[in-house]
Amino acid sequence: MGCQGRDSLGSIFHELQQVVAGSGIEPTCQTCKSLIYAKDDQLPLVDGSTKRREVVWVPIVDLTTPWDEVEQRKFKSIQASMPWFSVHHPSLLDPTAIKYIKEVWLFNKKPLLVVLDPHGKVVNPNAIHMCWIWGNMAFPCTTLTEEALWEGSTWTIELLADSIDQSILNWLYILIDKDGKYICLYGGENLDWIRRFTNRTRVVAEAACIPLEMMYVGKNNPRKKVWKISSVILAEKLSHILPDPTLIWFFWVRLESMWHSKMQHGKTIDNDPIMNEIMTILSFDGSDEGWAVISQGKSEMDKAKGDTILKSLALFDQWKDRIGEVGFVNALTDNHNELLTPQHCDHLIFPCTAENIPETIVCATCKTHMEKFIMYRYCRD
């Protein structure tokens, strides 16, 4: 596993520990040793585990940055915290190995988890995304395992939110009318919209006599503003929030990982319905306005941008009579579709270091090719 940045390394190592715990594999790591440093005078891999595992940290650092005592202490701290093997020191990496990892394994600053079989054959070019999505169900982290997991998946609130917060699991498995509670996940940074949306949603839920719970999931790459909004939501009792900032980060990392995982398997919004849903949520987050998804238990979800869902909620009297026939979520979805107009503007924002970004991306709303822009952004809270 190569990594240049240090962000989230602790979370990654913890997730890997959950994935391969109890595997009982006794690796020789000979393939890794040959790749990293082919000479016979190499120092042994540092073994940070009490049980031998098939995970080796290959720290690829920026050679243009001076390696001083501060960098050394940071490196040793990270190395001491991991339960796996690691290269003794970044300077021992053969330049040819670094070139191979960058050019063949396509490492580009983001953490990368390449899976090798006992013969040194690559069986997954990057399994880190499936680890984020499925946790210990991802083991043994092969491409075939990843395909099988996707084949058994449907787009539900359970897949979207997983076990990010225990409250969501409780709502999913509390049987009310045999289908569980209605769950609404919403995000954005517009506090005025959040107040109007949560208050209006609560009024509509009471009028429709449905048990509804709401959870704020913030925004991708959350900043201080998201934490401030979460505090306001909690103080004003507008809805539930994710209590730890890391959980907001994890929600969006999982969603982006779904996109990357699907891309690795050649999926698009044209041939994969889950990919279409993922793209839609990511495009919602690309704007500064709000958005929401609503589901009953594990059934299909309704989704909409902030202005659209507020309009539908305001027009509740026009579609409430259909609830008895098609259900609350479907009645809400039908109203959204009636409100849609050809005019819309969707954004899909990826960092320049993101992998697997295709040359063309199709809009999840209208299926038209999106224009590509380069954006520089500085946000000060």
Automatic annotation (TrEMBL):
InterPro entries: SEO_C, SEOA. GO terms for biological process: phloem development. Residues 145-379 form the Sieve element occlusion C-terminal domain. It holds the Pfam family SEO_C. It comes from the Eukaryota. This is Sieve element occlusion C-terminal domain-containing protein.
